[in-house]
């Protein structure tokens, strides 16, 4: 007959169950930690070397794609572990230090995985600013509205006039992304609000096309012009950009 967990022998049942659950948790943590290490490498070393990343792109196109199941596995384990914890606390059963440690490490690993890539750029701004792709990185952050990180790039010498592979400046990216705080900061630092990209479009044109009313109003109030590229400019820019993107994806694979 199976032991009743509420009987005097329940403590032994609890210890055995916690050992099994802890062992499974350690495996799930190692599985997820492998993905965390890979993503941190992409978000730091690979991004510094190659520029803005479609995170997980190269991993998803190889046998390592199985790692994307790791967080799901760990979350499921964590849910079960929390339920067991609640039951043990309710029944006043003690759990081992190893169980508590495993629970804490699981939360830490999942928390690390959830840290946005921009955090590492801000934390390591000096190293990222020295990257040959620093301009691309700053402009990508401008599009995301990450004022703190973009200000860090500027303070480390990346010029306001820097352009990415599409010929866009940080001001253009901020306007296209609809970030009013970003465009205000860049304008205050003297950014050219009429600098066009390879398509021949100005920041005001990008903001208008994307229906960012507050940014449109700000740009107009600061004398920005709505400039739209010609069909010839657009065609030439599209061909050039597509070639660059294909070459970059092939390199990453």
Describe the protein in words.
- This protein is mainly α.
- It folds into 2 domains: 10-115; 121-252, Ankyrin repeat-containing domain (Serine Threonine Protein Phosphatase 5, Tetratricopeptide repeat).
- Helix content is 67%, strand content 0%.
- The chain has helices at 10-50, 57-60, 70-90, 97-113, 117-123, 125-129, 134-144, 147-155, 170-177, 180-188, 203-209, 213-221, 231-252.
- The longest helix has 41 residues, at 10-50.
- The chain is elongated, with a radius of gyration of 25 Å.
- Residues 1-6 have low confidence and may be disordered.
Which shape, going by the Cα principal axes? elongated
* Number of continuous helical runs: 13
Query: Total number of β-strand segments?
Result: 0
CATH H-level name of the largest domain... which superfamily? Ankyrin repeat-containing domain
What fraction of residues sit in β-strands?
A: under 5%
User: What is the alpha-carbon Rg in Å?
Assistant: 25 Å
Low-confidence stretches: 1-6
Spell out the helices and strands N to C.
Answer: HHHHHHHHHHHHH
Distance N to C terminus:
57 Å
Q: Pairing-aware structural class of the strands and helices?
A: mainly alpha
Estimate the helix proportion, in percent.
55-70%
